[in-house]
Amino acid sequence: MFNDSDPKRLAQIALVVLLIIGCFTVLLPFIGAVLFAFVIWVCTWELYRERVLPRLGGRDTLGASLMVALLVLILLVPTIFLAGALVSGADRLIDLVKPYVDQGLPAEPPAWLAGFPLFGGQIVDFWHEIARSREALNALLAQMLAPARQFLILAGGVVANGMLQLALVLFVVFFLYRDGTTVANALYVGARKLGGELGEGMIDKARGTVLGVMLGIVGTAAAQGSVAMLGFFIAGAPAPVLLGFATFFLSMIPVGPPLIWGGAALWLYGEGQIGWAIFMALYGMLIISSIDNVVKPILMARGAGLSVLIIALGVFGGVLVFGFIGIFLGPVLLALGHMLLTRWLREETTS
Question: Which residue ranges traverse the bilayer (predicted)?
Answer without folding.
Answer: 12-45, 66-90, 151-177, 210-234, 241-268, 274-295, 307-336
